[in-house]
Amino acid sequence: MSTAYKTVTDISGPILLVEQVENVSYDELCEVELISGEKRLGKVLEAREGMAVVQLFESTQGITTEGTKVRFLGRTFELGVSEDMLGRVFSGSGKPIDDGPEIVAEKKLDINGTPINPFAREFPEDFIQTGISTIDVLNTLVRGQKLPIFSGAGLPHSQLAAKIARQARVLTKEEVETGKAAEASEAGTDDKFAVVFAAMGVTFEEAQYFKTEFEKTGALSRAVLFLNTADNPVVERIATPRLALTAAEYLAFEKGYHVTVIITDMTNYCEALREVSAARKEVPGRRGYPGYLYTDLATLYERAGRIKGKEGSITQIPILTMPEDDVTHPIPDLTGYITEGQIRLDRGLHQKGTFPPVIPMGSLSRLKGKAQGEGVTREDHSGMDAQLTAAYARGVEVRELAVILGESSLNDTDKAYLTFADRFEKEFIAQGEEENRSIFESLTIGWNLLSELPKSELKRVKQEHIDAYLPAKKSE
């Protein structure tokens, strides 16, 4: 029987200070027993000789310094995992909340994971189709990549997250070879594919929305959901993404699944870190966030990737809302350093009623070159990406010029770019929430839009691709 300490000397927010302790280690789990007999779980944040700082996963309401017992359990926070987790919904602390039975664990894993040896990593290079043109064509998602979505307050990142989660899949060899996507009802994959979805600090309505979206589309059968709502303890929010990534690592590296992990909202996670840091009376860093924010985020983001000799992979799509749409805020700033690009949502497009409001300028997938081209998608993909982005940027410039000088001052080429930009927003960027475009459909839409421009302006696509794909009616 472990020793029960009655030496709680201070309580601050979710933090307890326990003195006169022995043989306690960092990250060790503990059980806090109240005078009433109620038991709550916590973990050790800091351990020194004769003293431990304990962080509770639940509220400290009702806890007093006198009469409270603390037992240290000699183990870290572990998640029981098995393939039966697929199709299930869990709380932010890993407990089933879908009225289903408890998971019979095949094994228990430390939620902090184990670092991947850089030498053992394989370079990400396989295409993942999300069904969203601006991502698939212009900011291609690569299997094993970490590609965040930078959003803002009031922008539809929740709807975008749900759309990606239910539509993401890998193409079959037959689809790549024929250049034709299978019907939605017949769409399959050559590999085992799964989605792990983690929501942190969301409202009850948002949590129900995510759950309903997975259920009504049938995507829940290949998904694992972790839902932490705003009324849950703030410390649970810190554990939620680690639980999700632990489940993903098990499915990917032990069961051979290709897992896409979607985490929303990283801003809520960082706010939880700041709250706990303040309770510990730590010296604050930029804007009050702890000085170790970069390191902490890296421990999450770097759990994505592929490992040599392992069939599975983990692709990560963290979503964060930028306070005041400020991309220099510490959360997007540090996230951009760690990850391989970003997808930006634009408030201007959103105000026009465009969904999803993904803006090509400011968005970037640094690894997309490996997942574009013959044998992966289609031979014209890379050139189409460059040409569409450049043409839209030129069209936006012309639109701004027309506001100042008037459209009558534009030459024929400028007017063509202006028409292209308008059509690009309405036909390429804009999609219905239920619309799931294949990469081949998206490329066809792109070629139809490029037919608005003179052939002399198509300098970023190869001539043989122009001959093969550009509609003949406007090619001259």
Report what the structure shows:
This protein is of the alpha/beta class and 476 residues long. The chain is built from 13 helices and 21 strands. The strands form 4 sheets. Strands 9, 11, 14, 15, 16, 17, 18, 19, 20 and 21 form a 10-stranded mixed beta sheet that branches. A 7-stranded antiparallel beta sheet has the order 1-7-4-5-6-3-2, with no helix packed on it. A hairpin with a 5-residue loop joins β4 and β5.
Topology:
Layout: E1 4-5, E2 8-12, E3 15-19, E4 29-33, E5 39-48, E6 51-56, E7 69-72, E8 78-81, E9 88-91, E10 107-110, E11 121-122, E12 127-128, H1 133-138, E13 141-142, E14 149-152, H2 157-167, H3 173-178, E15 193-202, H4 204-217, E16 223-229, H5 234-253, E17 258-264, H6 266-279, H7 293-301, E18 305-307, E19 313-322, H8 330-338, E20 341-344, H9 347-351, E21 364-365, H10 381-405, H11 412-429, H12 439-450, H13 463-469
Parallel strand pairs: 9-16, 14-19, 14-20, 15-16, 15-17, 17-19
Antiparallel strand pairs: 1-7, 2-3, 3-6, 4-5, 4-7, 5-6, 8-10, 11-18, 12-13, 18-19, 20-21
Low-confidence stretches: none
| Rounded mean pLDDT score | 90
Discrete helix count: 13
Whole-number radius of gyration?
A: 25 Å
Structural class by helix and strand composition: alpha/beta
Q: Kindly report how far apart the N and C termini lie.
A: 85 Å
Fill in the keyword field for this structure.
476 residues, alpha/beta, ten-stranded mixed beta sheet, 21% strand
